[in-house]
Give the backbone structure.
Amino acid sequence: MENIKIIIASDSIGETAELVARACVSQFNPKECKHEFLRYPYIESFENIDEVIQVAHDKNAIIVYTLVKPEIKTYMQQKIKEYNLQSIDIMGPLMNLLNESYDENPYNQPGRVHRLDDAYFKKIDAIEFAVKYDDGKDPKGLPKADIVLIGVSRTSKTPLSQYLAHKSYKVMNVPIVPEVTPPENLFEIDPSKCIALRISEEKLNRIRKQRLKQLGLGDSARYANEARIKEEISYFEDIVERIGCPVIDVSDKAIEETANDVIHLIEQQAK
Amino acid sequence: MENIKIIIASDSIGETAELVARACVSQFNPKECKHEFLRYPYIESFENIDEVIQVAHDKNAIIVYTLVKPEIKTYMQQKIKEYNLQSIDIMGPLMNLLNESYDENPYNQPGRVHRLDDAYFKKIDAIEFAVKYDDGKDPKGLPKADIVLIGVSRTSKTPLSQYLAHKSYKVMNVPIVPEVTPPENLFEIDPSKCIALRISEEKLNRIRKQRLKQLGLGDSARYANEARIKEEISYFEDIVERIGCPVIDVSDKAIEETANDVIHLIEQQAK
């Protein structure tokens, strides 16, 4: 069995290179194809490069890199050639195309994607908003939110809100439970910014049983009871009809996929 | 002034391709070098490819793609060649290297990086944990947390906790305010899992004045008052000394950069 070593080298933190590497290794059976990431962030000197090259040479590692400073990048490429190493330049090919298309030269400054600009602070505000207005805690968030998510318990409302917040949307989520009357202004907001998360009975049953097991409780508790689940889902459908909002089925989706659907719906309705 | 169109085409949601594209365009002056992303997620048929090719041809767009199904990818590459279009294959080069290194063939299934496996549920739990234990709300989270962040108000504790949660760390954050005695068990946890976020007086003053302006309040309020800031920072330093935990200066860092430092510290201490 092979254990491939992958060096993530970057003059910033290296998350772009790591995401590409993760997407690629996820295509291989993890039982047969082992991998190990070795992270080298903040590469800023020839000495840093020398260290990476040494490790790649010793461990027969693939170097996956994002480097924007020309002298650092050129040195890396020379050394890779000199030692005949395997490597992938993540940003280089697209940077070359953009360089041909734009008249202006690039900044060649590491970490510009993380700079503290308006977009950054908008994202930070969105993350704080989603934490503050999680779980319908304060109905005052409803008119301020870009997106309002509703759903029964265990439909991933909280992580989905956070994922959308990282894309700079202000998201509030409101749990739908038969015993709790939803805030009155949920029925007053623009229904096109409200998205209902639907889940199948079978799936909900499975998730909740799993949850009870995690919590060390038996699976006969009311929370995972089939009649109870039917009651909750039927109450949820009533609320959805009253609001008149679009619905996304989340039964077999990862939050990244549901988030993509939510953004698509919201952007379409905004047109 | 050029406005470059970049098509993000993927047989999954396309976030890997978009992150690479964002990192690249952020290297150009946004005032002079405009860009526009056109997203085509869930590419699964030749018809979907034909649509992308048509748009790329009509709008002179660069196609940045992540495609793992061989027949879909081959068709895309044929069409790109046929129409003489500009394109970047994000995963292809590394997939080729991995194919050479591993004996097994890849799955070639789109979206595997988002599959609902143990790692996925660990991440979801971490995100929910960070929301639940945000702002020191419940000291019971302290022994359960992988990382405990402490800091005065406006040191980005909440978004930083969320960012680390997306990397599957269970994070609790505790605000340090002179008027509020921190929970007693903050001094009982392993100090190596606690990280103090330090910020300079000048920076804190600037952030808080900005914050007050946003909230529509004057900047003379107690919150941004210099004597008050000195008092808060001095109290913070006392607490840090009592706990004996490592400190990270966050004054000029984006949360992604601070998160990288936190993970580095935590991983080092775990060794």
Observations:
- DSSP finds ten helices and eight strands in chain B.
- The domain at 4-114 of chain B is CATH 3.40.50 (Rossmann fold).
- Chain B touches chain A through 66 residues (CB under 8 Å).
